[in-house]
Recover the amino acids of this structure.
């Protein structure tokens, strides 16, 4: 099966494309189901800027809303992001992994490899588009939604072309520089800027024509889900794709291949600079390696910074002013949403600031944010060191296995605390900016419960990691469990007999007490804390019992 | 070398599922000796070492280091050992110095003057990130972290892989110094010549079975050699085949090739008495031949 570079790369990558597209299809299904049952004024009354970004026309019906909001914005972004990640991994990724030399040790030219990778970007984007196309036709049928006049095929084909364009852009940058992070970073930047520009520029008369400078315009500018395929626009993208392919061939053939290297960070540069060497050496060098937990907490900084930043700024600071901004539409939204659905996010009255924060920030985003950080560190803490073959060396020192587990737990708590501080500061700031007068004490209580729910699932990941030594089992096992428990917590109350069962899941103790309004529920906090401690204890026991894995 | 036992294994057995990776290993390594653990790839060397380190737990049997049980007292043991894992990996984003500091902190301090002297002897650059080092230079950092705490027992799995010959020689000197100090070195290898140069005794393992434990001097005398004899006349191969120690004979006109593990003196006496010997070359048989010999003997 690995006969060619194309099939090997396909086998490495098809799962990502399929899972991404399938997740979108499911989102589309639920989105359409919800749109079918609620008053769409909630969306059509949104400020024009937001509607324009989300591709929602002022007179949107259920079909236009579902395809416009979910497919043509989220869908296209996701598909393009998948292509982008393939593009940046194609040449530069093989160099980063040190496998490029091995690949080129075979009698295949650089151009051959590049073309194979390009073929994969195209094939896998097509696979994703195909899944979306099928879902786009089947879902309205199942839900009995009339979608006459929506051109699903045209929309999905446009999505496919814009995805390939971004994949090729990333591939070309990677081919010229050999830096995969630069390839994905620049391409993602281009994609996001052009996405926002195409959404927002048309609102300003003098800048209207500026959109033509952005690739995204040639994807969505003609509204393909309503007007069908626009060949004029697509030709522009095709020419772009052709040019990028030619550039990539040129780039990969003209330069020296990079060998496997570690990234040079700002800290490294400061360490090399005589004036800052001493102080940075102390901080980045000896301080970082003083204890296991310090070293572990200093890793995964990228994720931590992004999560803390998003929770502070987007989910904290900005929600306050936003509440005052779309106040009126929200009251209607609150009326339109079934109560049970709101209860899923911890309920609350969306027309009050506390209820709005509960639904927007604390209901779903807070557990996700904490879990991203804690589950990453929990899963990698033990299994990651085994996969990297450093666990043997670490445990050759006179320390107990339980010490390693506990130090890794401390690192998890430290990272969760950083997110908690960012979230708390953001929400308090948002409440002040919007003049909402929320109680800081109650915000602290909600943040604390959020930290605990994150730690519970982080500890579950740690226990799975300790028991199996496999990072993937730990990550997917935890995400699956969390998702099932979250959904169960939301849906069990629909059935009267099963309502009591929610008490057996952890989300009940995070979502049911409405701490933003009622303050701290110490009983619930104690349950979560107990669960966390029990899972860490399980991790200690499991790790102590088993053989360390040896990869390779 | 003393009679004290540094490493002791008793019926040590490890199965991975159905697969017997290590079968009934009985072994004593004396304090103050350099013990070479020799075997081809997949013979069970790494399994043995990982069991001694309590990374994996034996299916049956037990082992002790310095009189302490490898499982029950593993933390105490690790206070006394230095370890170089096979296929060494470290944290790519830390410099060599950071890496050593990390492990020094976990051990509770080391003599940095000694670390610097080790780095100098091996020519290791500790200022670079480990991920940027070549495999040989990375190996040097791994060796330093094992030697730096002056452990009572050094356990090393294929430690000289990637090292150039000059550094290998320095490394061998370092091992001899450890032994001279009364401390113990347990070293696995698949290279006979390396082990011969440095070890006092050798254990040979194959398919999870310890086939033999020999003093290096005995092994050398036992070792099969390939002997090329050149005569000025045609020689009767059958006659040479009957001599003690001759395992295989090939005759090409005036040139005879022997596989030989007997006393060289006896061979020379017989040959020179009967024929006119023009020239003789001899070299050590490669490891594979020796393994095959032992293996055949062991399974016979």
């Amino acid at each position: 099966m690995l006969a060619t570079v194309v099939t090997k790369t396909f086998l490495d990558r098809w799962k990502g494309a399929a899972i991404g597209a399938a997740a979108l299809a499911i989102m589309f299904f639920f989105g359409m189901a919800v749109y079918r049952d609620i008053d769409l004024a909630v969306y059509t009354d949104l400020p024009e800027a937001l509607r324009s970004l989300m591709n929602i026309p002022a007179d949107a019906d259920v079909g236009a809303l579902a395809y416009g909001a979910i497919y043509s914005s989220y869908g296209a972004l996701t598909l393009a992001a998948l292509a982008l990640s393939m593009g940046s991994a194609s040449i530069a990724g093989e160099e980063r992994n040190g496998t490029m030399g091995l690949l080129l040790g075979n009698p295949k030219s650089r151009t051959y490899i590049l073309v194979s990778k390009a073929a994969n970007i195209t094939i896998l984007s097509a696979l994703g588009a195909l899944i979306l196309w099928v879902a786009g036709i089947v879902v309205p049928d199942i839900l009995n939604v009339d979608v006459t006049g929506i051109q699903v095929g045209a929309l999905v084909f446009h999505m496919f072309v814009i995805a390939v364009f971004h994949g090729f852009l990333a591939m070309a940058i990677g081919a010229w520089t050999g830096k995969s992070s630069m390839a994905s970073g620049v391409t993602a930047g281009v994609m996001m800027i052009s996405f926002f520009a195409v959404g927002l520029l048309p609102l300003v008369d003098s800048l209207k024509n500026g959109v033509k400078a952005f690739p995204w315009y040639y994807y969505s500018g003609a509204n393909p889900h309503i007007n069908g395929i626009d060949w004029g626009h697509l030709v522009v993208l095709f020419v772009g794709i052709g040019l990028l392919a030619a550039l990539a061939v040129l780039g990969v053939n003209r330069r020296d291949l990079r060998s496997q290297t570690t990234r040079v960070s700002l800290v490294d540069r400061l360490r090399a600079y005589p004036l800052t060497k001493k102080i940075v050496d102390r901080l980045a060098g000896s301080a970082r390696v003083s204890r296991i937990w310090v070293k572990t907490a200093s890793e995964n900084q990228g994720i931590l910074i992004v999560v803390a930043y998003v929770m502070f700024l987007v989910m904290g600071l900005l929600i306050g002013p936003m509440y005052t901004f779309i106040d009126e539409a929200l009251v209607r939204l609150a009326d339109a949403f079934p109560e049970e659905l709101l209860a899923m996010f911890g309920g609350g009255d969306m027309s009050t600031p506390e209820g709005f924060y509960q639904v927007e920030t604390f209901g779903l985003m807070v557990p996700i944010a904490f879990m991203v950080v804690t589950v990453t560190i929990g899963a990698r803490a033990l299994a990651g060191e085994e996969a990297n073959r450093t666990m043997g060396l670490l445990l050759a020192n006179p320390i107990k296995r339980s010490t390693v587990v506990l130090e890794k737990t401390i690192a998890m708590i430290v990272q969760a605390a950083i997110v908690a501080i960012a979230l708390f500061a953001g929400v308090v700031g948002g409440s002040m900016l919007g003049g909402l007068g929320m109680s800081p004490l109650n915000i602290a209580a909600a943040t604390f419960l959020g930290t605990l729910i994150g730690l519970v699932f982080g500890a579950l990941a740690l226990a799975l990691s300790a028991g199996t030594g496999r990072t993937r089992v730990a990550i997917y096992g935890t995400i699956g469990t969390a998702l099932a428990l979250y959904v169960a917590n939301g849906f069990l109350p629909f059935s009267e007999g099963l309502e009591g069962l929610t008490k057996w899941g952890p989300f009940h103790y995070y979502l049911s007490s409405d701490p933003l309004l009622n303050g701290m529920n110490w009983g619930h906090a104690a349950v979560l804390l107990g669960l966390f401690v029990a899972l860490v204890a399980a991790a200690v026991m499991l790790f102590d019992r088993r053989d360390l894995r040896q990869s390779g | 070398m003393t009679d004290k036992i540094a490493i002791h294994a008793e019926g040590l057995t490890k199965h991975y599922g159905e697969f017997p990776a290590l079968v009934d290993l009985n072994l004593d390594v004396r304090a103050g000796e350099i013990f070479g653990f020799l075997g081809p790839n997949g013979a069970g060397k790494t399994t043995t070492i990982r069991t001694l380190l309590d990374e994996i737990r034996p299916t049956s049997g037990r082992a002790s280091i310095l009189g302490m049980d490898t499982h029950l007292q593993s933390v105490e043991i690790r206070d006394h050992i230095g370890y170089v894992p096979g296929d060494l990996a470290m944290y790519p984003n830390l410099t060599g110095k950071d890496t050593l500091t990390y492990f020094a902190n976990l051990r509770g301090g080391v003599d940095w003057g000694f670390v610097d002297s080790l780095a100098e002897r091996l020519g290791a650059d500790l200022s670079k990130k480990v991920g940027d080092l070549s495999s040989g230079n990375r190996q040097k950092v791994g060796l330093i972290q094992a030697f730096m705490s002056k452990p009572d027992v050094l356990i090393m799995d294929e430690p000289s892989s990637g090292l150039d010959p000059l550094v290998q020689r320095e490394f061998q000197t370092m091992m001899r110094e450890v032994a001279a100090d009364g401390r113990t070195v347990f070293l696995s290898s698949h290279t006979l010549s390396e082990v011969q140069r440095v070890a006092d005794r050798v254990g040979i393992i194959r398919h999870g079975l310890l086939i033999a434990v020999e003093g290096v001097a005995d092994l050398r005398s036992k070792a099969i050699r390939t002997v090329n004899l050149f005569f000025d006349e045609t020689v009767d191969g059958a006659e040479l085949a009957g001599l003690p120690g001759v395992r295989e004979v090939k005759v090409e006109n005036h040139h005879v090739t022997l596989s030989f593990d007997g006393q060289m003196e006896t061979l020379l006496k017989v040959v020179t008495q009967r024929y006119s010997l023009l020239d003789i070359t001899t070299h050590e048989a490669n490891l594979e031949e020796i393994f095959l010999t032992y293996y055949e003997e062991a399974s016979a």
